[in-house]
Specification:
The protein is mostly beta strands. The protein is built from two helices and 13 strands, in the order ββββββαβββββββα. It has helices spanning about 80-85, 190-200; strands at about 5-10, 15-20, 20-35, 40-50, 50-60, 70-75, 95, 100-105, 115-130, 130-145, 150-160, 165-175, 180-185.
């Protein structure tokens, strides 16, 4: 790559992605570019498709090293359709018509990997059979850190409408997933709403009734 011209760009439009002979994704527009220099290789791409409104990806690599940083931004991801395509015929369906998400990740190329995820959806719902429940807005803010001795997840915020206005938590383990330690903080939980949701989705089940 370092022997190529400093900047290269390419693009395409109106392409379908097939899996097992079925169309899974239709890309309406895709553009990508690469900036190759002695101290860094930067790749950037933007895309629009029928499963999301817009997407942006930026990847930075350090030559002669595994150190890297990446950022992915998704706008208007139609998660309901994506989840249905991944698990057709699932008994319990998650309905998220649109979600915005940003993922940041970086590594030193040796032992440390950091990542953060922020996601928000104006509407989150569940469906089972003829029963549907709209739980309201969803927001998630999550950090992750992995080194050669441990893994930690820090959920800085999880909110789901009036059902769960705010929750935080941490999960820490040693290398290999041993000695896990989980801590959750749920200041408020609408138990009446939990019961209504359970009956709406599983009222035909004896364990729920």
């Amino acid at each position: 790559l370092r022997a190529t011209p400093p900047i290269r760009a390419c693009g395409c439009s109106d392409h379908d992605v097939l899996y097992a002979g079925e169309r899974r994704l239709s890309v309406t527009q895709l553009a990508a570019s690469a900036d190759v220099a002695a101290d860094a290789i930067v790749v950037a791409a933007t895309a629009s498709a029928d499963r999301w409104r817009n997407a942006q990806v930026r990847l930075k690599l350090v030559p002669e090293s595994l150190a890297a940083a990446a950022k992915v931004q998704l706008g208007g991801l139609r998660a309901t359709e994506l989840l249905a395509a991944m698990a057709p015929g699932a008994g319990l369906q998650v309905r998220v018509p649109s979600i915005d998400a940003t993922l940041d990740a970086e590594t030193d190329g040796r032992s440390i990997v950091r990542a953060s995820l922020v996601a928000a959806a104006p509407q989150f719902g569940l469906a089972r059979g003829a029963g549907t429940v709209d739980l309201g807005t969803l927001r998630l803010d999550l950090d992750a850190l992995r080194d050669d001795g441990s893994l930690s997840l820090d959920m800085k915020q999880f909110a789901l409408g009036a059902l769960l206005p705010a929750a935080t938590g941490t999960l820490r383990t040693r290398a290999g997933g041993t000695a896990p330690a989980l801590e959750l903080h749920v200041p408020s939980l609408d138990l009446a709403r939990v019961r209504e949701t359970a009956l709406a989705l599983g009222g035909d089940l004896a364990a729920v009734r």
